[in-house]
């Protein structure tokens, strides 16, 4: 295991630096936009366009890599993302920021996809579960670190935008200097909604719910905390509490779902996500402790829903369809993430900022009702026939080949050194 981590250390370092820079941007931009007087509709559009750019990035990055190679593609995309972070501070116009967020989404999807495909290339069937765990720890830890960076300067200052740009630029260094051989071309992710629905309607509905609810939170969570009169340091602490709550809940939620009907666990967790959202809206302004506790609870129940739904779909798909199914679910999530901010912001304009969590509660309640409807439609999967719940990051389709549940012939230790493609796999 230690040797495997040493082999991909440069890529993991690049991931940590990149995620910290992106984590800073995710909170800084809606915070500064609100301070600049951007409308809620404009702030929502920024995040919606970000996820649209993300979907485009997942589609075009494999083509770009095939044309110019991994290092050149990574360099180009990271450089554009770094420049975009600075341009935000130079063009304080909502229309410009909306376009810039789309560009950022495209670029960050691309660089993350390249890193994940590279890490997957170096992992083996014996250690990819451990490698995935390390990668997930770095992903979450760097995201929390990005929130902490928000407290280093005034959001009105140029320095935080410069810091985000510096971090994204620095992520180039480990990739540019790595001696690790470049991986095979990245397969393009496809979305076959009819096939996904045949595998698991509840999983499709679940990841769509996650997209609709969580994207609204990431875009408007900082604005909500600001509206309660809290300082920027509390905004950063609140966002960290949500991320931390989601991280801490992954193991117990996954353990329960492996031992009981996973659909019932989804229903219960969804109900608790709705309740914790309502609690946030009700007690968020009363005290810092109440805000942070309710935020941690919201993260603990809203964040694991993605993994639960993906695991439920995996229980019903063939082993050789896991990567395709998970990648399709990720794109369904992205569709929901595009729509969510566009739906919630008009409601917030009418009913106030706190209504964001009424919206998330309504979305979660819809999934709860759909889950109850689906329960009698299909028999529960026996515990011994289930795949284990694994916390796979919701990043790009490339990460699913690193999951231990993916077919073994997708991984490089099964390839013949003379072959250009894995055995039994058609050329991309």
Structure write-up:
This protein is globular. The chain is mainly alpha-helical and about 425 residues long. Helix content is about 75%, strand content about 0%. The two termini are about 30 Å apart. The relative contact order is 0.15. Residues about 410-428 have low confidence and may be disordered.
Features:
16 helices, single chain, disordered C terminus, mainly alpha, 73% helix, 0% strand, 428 residues
Topology:
Blueprint: H1 2-7, H2 9-35, H3 40-68, H4 70-90, H5 94-122, H6 128-149, H7 159-170, H8 172-177, H9 193-199, H10 201-227, H11 232-259, H12 262-283, H13 288-302, H14 305-316, H15 322-351, H16 355-374
Helical residues, percent: over 70%
Shape: globular
Percent strand equals under 5%
Q: What class do helices, strands and sheet pairing give? A: mainly alpha
Total number of beta strands: 0
Compute the gyration radius: what is it? 21 Å
Chain-averaged pLDDT: 84
The biggest sheet amounts to:
none
CA-to-CA gap between the ends? 30 Å
Q: What sequence of helices (H) and strands (E) makes up the elements?
A: HHHHHHHHHHHHHHHH
Number of helices: 16
Report the uncertain regions. 411-428
């Amino acid at each position: 295991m230690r040797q495997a981590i040493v082999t991909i250390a440069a890529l993991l370092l690049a991931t940590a630096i990149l995620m910290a820079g992106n984590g800073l941007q995710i909170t800084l931009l809606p915070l500064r936009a609100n301070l600049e007087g951007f409308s809620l509709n404009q702030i929502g559009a920024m995040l919606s366009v970000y996820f649209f750019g993300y979907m485009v990035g997942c589609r075009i990055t494999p083509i770009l890599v095939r044309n110019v190679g991994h290092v050149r593609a990574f360099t180009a995309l990271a450089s554009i993302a770094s420049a975009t972070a600075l341009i935000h501070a130079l063009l304080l116009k909502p229309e410009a920021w909306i376009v810039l967020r789309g560009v950022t989404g495209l670029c960050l999807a691309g660089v993350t996809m390249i890193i994940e495909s590279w890490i997957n290339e170096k992992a083996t069937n014996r250690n990819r579960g451990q490698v995935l765990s390390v990668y997930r720890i770095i992903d979450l830890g760097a995201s929390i670190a990005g929130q902490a960076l928000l407290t280093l300067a005034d959001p009105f200052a140029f320095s935080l935008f410069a810091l985000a740009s510096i971090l994204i630029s620095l992520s180039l260094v480990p990739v540019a200097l790595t001696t690790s051989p470049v991986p095979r071309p990245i397969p393009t992710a496809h979305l076959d909604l009819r096939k996904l629905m045949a595998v698991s309607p509840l999983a499709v509905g679940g990841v769509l719910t996650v997209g609709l609810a969580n994207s609204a939170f990431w875009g408007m969570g900082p604005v909500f905390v600001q509206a309660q009169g809290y300082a920027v340091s509390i905004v950063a602490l609140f966002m960290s509490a949500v991320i931390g709550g989601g991280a801490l809940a992954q193991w117990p939620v996954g353990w329960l779902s492996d031992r009981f009907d996973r659909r019932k666990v989804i229903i219960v967790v969804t109900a608790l996500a709705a309740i914790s959202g309502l609690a946030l809206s009700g007690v968020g302004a009363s005290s810092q402790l109440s805000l942070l506790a309710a935020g941690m609870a919201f993260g603990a129940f809203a964040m694991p829903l993605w993994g639960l739904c993906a695991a439920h779909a995996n229980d019903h798909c063939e082993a050789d369809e896991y990567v395709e199914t998970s990648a399709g679910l990720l794109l369904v999530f992205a569709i929901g993430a595009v729509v969510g901010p566009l739906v919630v912001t008009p409601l917030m304009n009418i009913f106030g900022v706190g209504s964001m969590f009424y919206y998330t509660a309504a979305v979660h309640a819809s999934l709860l009702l759909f889950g109850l409807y689906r329960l009698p439609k299909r028999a529960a999967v026996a515990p011994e026939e289930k795949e284990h719940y694994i916390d796979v990051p919701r990043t790009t389709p490339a990460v699913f080949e690193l999951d231990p549940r993916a077919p073994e012939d997708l991984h490089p230790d099964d390839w013949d050194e003379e072959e250009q493609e894995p055995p039994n796999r058609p050329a991309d």
